[in-house]
Design goal:
The complex is a heterodimer of chains A (280) and B (284).
Chain A lengths: L1 H12 L30 H4 L5 E6 L5 H7 L5 H7 L1 E5 L13 E7 L2 E2 L3 H13 E7 L1 H5 L19 E2 L9 E3 L6 H13 L2 H4 L12 H9 L9 H5 L5 E4 L2 E4 L9 H5 L7 H8 L2
Parallel strand pairs in A: 1-2, 1-3, 3-5, 5-7
Antiparallel strand pairs in A: 4-6, 8-9
Helix pairs in contact in A: 4-7
Chain B lengths: L7 E7 L2 H4 L7 H11 L5 E7 L6 E6 L2 H6 L14 H7 L5 E5 L1 H12 L11 E7 L7 H11 L9 E5 L2 E5 L3 E5 L24 E4 L8 E5 L2 H12 L3 E5 L7 H24 L11
Parallel strand pairs in B: 2-4, 4-5, 5-9
Antiparallel strand pairs in B: 1-10, 1-11, 2-3, 6-7, 7-8, 9-10
Classes of the chains: A alpha/beta (280), B alpha/beta (284).
Bound molecules: flavin-adenine dinucleotide (FAD) and iron/sulfur cluster (SF4) (3 copies).
Chain lengths: 280, 284
Amino acid sequence: MGLLDKILGKTSGAPSKEVTAAPTAAPVTKAPEPVKQEVAPKKSEEVKVSKPKLAYVHLSGCTGCLISLSDNYEKLLDVLGAVDQVYNLTLMDQRELPEGKIDIALVEGAVCLQDEHSVHLIKETREKAGLVIAYGGCAATGCVTNFCRGGQANQPQHESFVPINRVIKVDAYIPGCPPTPEIIYNVAIAAVTGDMEYLQPFLADKGGYACGCDLFTKIVENGLCIGCGTCASSCPTRALEMQFGRPSLNNTRCVKCGACSAACPRSFLPVSQIEKKLMV
Amino acid sequence: MAFGKYKEVYALKAKDNAVTGVAQDGGVVTALLCYALDQGIIDGAIVAGNSETPWLPKPVVATTKEEIIAAAGTKYTISPNVAAVKDAVREMGCDKLAVVGTPCQIYAIQKMRLYPFGARHVPDKIAMTIGIFCTENFTYQGLKTIIEDHCKVPIESVKKMEIGKGKFSIKADKDVAIPIKETHKYEQPGDHVCTDLTAEFADIATGSIGTPDGWSTTFGRTTRGTELLKKAIAAGVFESKAMADVQPGLPLLEKLEAAKKDKAKKHVEEMKSLGLFVTPGIIY
Ligand SMILES: Cc1cc2nc3c(=O)[nH]c(=O)nc-3n(C[C@H](O)[C@H](O)[C@H](O)COP(=O)(O)OP(=O)(O)OC[C@H]3O[C@@H](n4cnc5c(N)ncnc54)[C@H](O)[C@@H]3O)c2cc1C
Ligand code: SF4
Ligand code: SF4
Ligand code: SF4
């Protein structure tokens, strides 16, 4: 499958450690239109990519990520129409991962180490899927499940929840608690149209784990913050407040979703995409 | 071109006295926002309003002309305008929002439109971005020190601040100007990797460099920005001149922008040589 090779070629083959938002050498078919407009996936004969087989793997989370995906309303049909969904516990009558290879596994939720089924499921997902995407905070960083202390009915032994990259290799991350409907839509359309430039910042070798602390270790303490306030407006729990032009973190509110770090214009700056897609 | 792509450029000055009386330069930002609000092109704008602390701005979602005019004038310290975006859209219900910001804030908004990580239902509500030129910005404590220790004037008595012609000047009970050199150490460090003087990625970008006092150099960079400018000019909102007919004109802007880009490149190299993280994509 051409698309998958492209994405995987990027994640495993790319020697560069440096994150770059600059155009890549990867063949970009056609960039999607600016987000503002309706972006319909191109007809399959134009894209010359067969529909990727998608498994939606649901571990320990609140289902908010799935709901956010469906909050694309009628545009959800673009996303669902672009893939061949082979597994989705919440939406389909199919209890186990199907036999054989899957192209993309979108994983929501953290792995509960005391739940044998979860551990097996994520391992099996890795074996079967070409591309494993940690979709949303819980899968990516543990997010709210980091705060679980066990002891609850009816599974009191369920105490430790870890991001999926603690158990398997992850190819890409979509941060946020939940990720916005728009970001998952954009990722899906970029994947279908082969817009590798758009997908770059999500790839594992470009980072992945991000939380409120990274704003400080990477941006503020590094003398890069310019006080724009993007981090504060991106935070779902209002853990960040701007004080004298710098973010101030209330770490008891921070759920480690990573949205702030990902959104900060000083974490990466997609200049060439802004030029191409917005400066029209 | 050092100062980014554009479709049209004009020298402009607002005609409305209520605007020019309070605006920093040609009143382009304030007059344009008022016009766009009148025409229903926008239904709100994020601007740098006043807080209880003298000269410490706070982001305000202005939905009336009075609020837009009340926020006119440059505050030479950080106003985290992007922090108000989600409130503007989700709490105040703006569907057609304009955002005013420094070039780095415009980057943030444009990145947010492409990568709305935490900006649910925001990207399609950004109707206009108006960038103001920016050479550097100061922390609030820095600005206060410049005014009280260097200019020796209480900050609450200051009526206007300006940077230009190599000087930092204030209008207060007495007018004071000091060499801009004295202020350099109060710049926020994040500015030193900044390559953008002229808001290269805003729909409309405006600033004083290039035009005589009281006028503004104004670029229409995108179709929607240029259309708004043309409409406003046709409606008589501005006195307008061709950039070729004013002094010092675009060559000065080009020179200063190139110098800013060079400086940023050098600083980035220094940071890299120390093994520090530097924003990917920031040098272009
Ligand atoms: C820190 C800083 C540095 C600048 N440096 C230069 C420069 O080197 N060269 C140059 O030509 N121009 C510079 N400018 C821009 C210039 O000072 C004027 O803001 C610009 O020319 C617009 O003038 P106007 O009369 O059209 O705007 P006005 O009608 O006076 O409106 C100005 C708008 O900017 C907003 N604003 C004010 N302060 C801030 C702030 N700190 N952050 C975000 N928004 C703000 C106001 O709310 C208002 O909406 C700078 C501005 C700032 C804030
Ligand atoms: S500060 Fe907010 S946005 Fe950042 S990781 Fe924490 S919860 Fe998420
Ligand atoms: S988003 Fe803006 S204010 Fe927040 S850390 Fe990054 S540069 Fe600073
Ligand atoms: S110099 Fe650059 S980074 Fe600093 S405030 Fe101005 S536009 Fe922002």
